[in-house]
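Entry 14. Two folds queued back to back today. First construct below, sequence then structure tokens.
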Amino acid sequence: MPANTALDAEVRAGVPAEAVAPLIRGIAVLRRLTEAGGTLSPSALERATGLARSTVDRITATLARMGYVRHDGRDIVLTPRVMELGNAYLAALRLPALLDARADALADELDESVSLAVADLDGIRFIHQATRRRAMSVSFRIGDLLPAERTAPGPLFAAGWTEADRQRWRARRAEDPGDASFPAVPPRSASAPDDFERRVEQARRDGWALDDQLIEPGLVAVSVPVREPDTGRVVCAVSVVSHTSRHSAAGLRTSLLPRLRTAVAAMEADLREAARPQPGPPPSGLATWTTASKHELGREFVESLARGLTVLTAFGEGRSALTLTDVARATGLARATARRALITYEHLGLVAAGPDRTFTLTPRVLDLGFPPLSRSTLPRLAEPHLRALTDRLHEPTALAVLAPGTEAEIQYTAGAGASRVLTVDITVGARLPAASTSLGRVLLADTDEPLSPALTKVRAQGYALVDEELESGLRSIAVPVRDRTGRAVTAVSVATHPARRTLEDCVHDLLPALRATADHIQTDLHTASRFTRVPPA
């Protein structure tokens, strides 16, 4: 079945009477945006979902209010904040936090890409990627869904399938022979081998599996399962991925499989020794916020959609399995509201109900915006905020980092120009002396080196103001943007001419707006980098 049909078959058929229809429609909009790479026009969303234009407009207005999308001209664009939904699943799963470092170390050791994947019905979904920076590299992202039969991890998970699982897989293969419902992979070749069940039996015997160019010509992988210490259940699979110019499939088995098995043994030891997680604080005030938003925006705010989405954020580290009471308490929603949302999510496959009256998130939550944003760079996160600041102040804005390999220069990584006759020309990639720029001084003030009195003052006040030191007529002010550890990884600035703004104007008028923008960029960075790496340039 094509991915861009009006609504998923699961949404159209057998909807429970207590399901929340606006929530189903909102999830469909997020999925279509995800499949499209994160950007669609309202008209394209109308066609992709089969929803009325007025419904699409109300849904996207609600998602924009929640910070999950933004309007960019005529387009609707996913924002980093939507990743908090996938973060809730990954935090509750715990596997990325426990195993990512081992996967990254293995990638460094082998100089090959390494991935972690979990089972998602009759597919596999990536929860971590440690890729190599090469011209020819693997382009899969965290959250991408692949058909089990075209992967190395697939046979490892399928070895534990029930007969019902096998029947579901056969039905999906018959309905979608070209894998159109898996946008992360090329269409299936008519000449592709159809020997999955044989590969499953071999994986059951060997304890590992190969992918010999099943995704596309040239791509090979070997995979080993990671088992839960107490039950022996396969909780994820670790794959080493390469291409045939570097390794043949047989070569992967002989040269890389032993080291992969050693890494998996260490991962299983980490799982055995991991301390029980302490629940972090659940989100607070969500029900109150949605009510206030409804009062402010009126009909344009779909409160049942917003309240339904808050249910997903009730889960997290130490909160992997929650009862209905737990969810209602964490979100501040009435039990009846939380119950209807959970019923809806169970119908959509985003939540699974356990025998002990608890609910857990499924890997399908990663369908909601995560893949297209999982490889964002810091400049990409910052650009819309820079444009908004420039539009507000009518002054050019810029983002910069300390140039790689030196602390003597800064390098511009993003900027937004103002529509003025006299303005600052910001060229991405250009370098300037760090000590003579406000951007550089903010970043230098955060280093571990002994600070001069001037930089000590910058660190204490949290901003740098430079007046015509780099060039006559150029006045600028900058503040830092910090990562999740509190380290200043980049800085954002506003530039002006002395005839337009005095030094006092820079501090009293520009600085508050600049700090607010830095906070917005920082929030997006913290959300996006919780389980993914966000390159600074």
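Second construct, same run, same settings:
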Amino acid sequence: MEELVIRDADVVDGSGADSYRADVVVDGGRIVSIVKEAAAAGCQRPKARRELDAEGLVLSPGFVDMHAHSDLALLRDPDHSAKAAQGVTLEVIGQDGLSYAPVDDRTLGEVRRAIAGWNGSGDDIDFAWRTVGEYLDRLDRGIAVNAAYLIPQGTVRALAVGWEDREAAPQELDRMRQVVAEGMEQGAVGMSSGLTYTPGMYAQDAELTELCRVVASYGGYYCPHHRSYGAGALEAYREMVALTREAGCPLHLAHATMNFDVNEGRAPELLALLDEALAAGADISLDTYPYTPGCTALAALLPSWASEGGPDQVIERLADEETAERIRHDLEVTGSDGCHGVPVEWDTIEISGVGDPALADYVGRTVQESADRRGEAPWVTARGLLLADRLAPTILQHVGHEENVRAIMRHRVHTGGSDGILQGAKPHPRAYGTFPHYLGHYVRELGVLSLQECVAHLTSHPAARLRLPDRGLVRERYVADLVLFDPATVAAGAGFAEPRVLPTGIPYVLVDGRFVIEDGRRTDALAGRAVRRTPA
């Protein structure tokens, strides 16, 4: 007898098609049968050792977070309710060009310091791995939800070139090609870049194109955080489209937003650019989060020249009065490339987390507010905080536009990604709320997407980009990564005032046929594993 039958569910199967009522039978981690309109047809209903009454609930495929920063959280926090409770059954990590494999001892230490604001210091993690394959093997010991990995181009460059702003020598480029090929062979699904973060931003287009050729040869895709989301946003998008077309590599645009005042109302221009490329045969997808503010590290705003050489050199430059004044001028007058070519507005920069608990008073306030309380210029406050906390502070950047968010999420190649940073006392609520916020706010309350469209964007669209032949749909023989939610009540609990509140209306989540959320509570199941690239 099978393990589980989910009785009388309203199935939204991920294809975008109309929903239907059915009994869905799960056994051995897979969907083994779907009996449509079972009760009305009067047929012999399927039986199992356990029956779950899904009356009034929607059954859908598990949600795929196409842009997650859970690289260490999956190892640190077996509970991981921040994602499991949202119905996320697969996260794509290794984002924005910086993560923890492939590394050597030197690079690992540098990367840990560079992205401590994203993932914590890692002092509580046993970094026994060095290669992509070893990291994926570590995930295979058991994690809360599944995870796929992108090779981080910035980490690869740090490994082969270092943190200097210069062109890679031919032998260094050869090594980067080899390292990327090894990572793809070991199971990565593609490559990411952070082209406003060091050292990835120092790569010229020709270098990126060569690495993308390697990725494409293994059936992977390129996921860039491109060179500007502000003053040069459209040019930066156009650059990525041209680069990947030359390389013959599929393109997935990370957190594809149009931010800052210069881009208010300009989402249609981005979508027209993408539609033109798609019509010409380009393979493009994108992800967004359903909120207007962004989230990153405070140090990420600094100009690229100030970040050259790695974290220690950044701190030395900040400590030097003359150099710090040059940094201030770039930030406040010229428009730093780290701040997307737009002069920083300190009243939009809210501190969301710090590494040193003694600095907690800054959290939840903008830099301008803290400066006013201290009676000093905001740059003095920001500089002092960066030095005191050794580059660890994270920020919310309130620079988005609601009309752009809505326009982009409607596009046919759109997928959902939280870009959720789980560190800090007051993280962005997208880390805990992205997927129920789509379903509750943008589907039920605003009608920006239909329920069927939205579920497809969160399930089958990303599964297709990841080339997963048995995930992303409610189909027989597909992996039983499933979510049951109440369409009338599903909602994000997290908000900007209280960002760590779990959602409502998602009582059941299954990963590989095992309940990780049951009756609205996290079980002790560690059913997730590394999801490796499907061979081309």
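Quick look at the second one. The longest helix spans residues 170-185. The chain has two domains: 63-292+400-473, 298-396.
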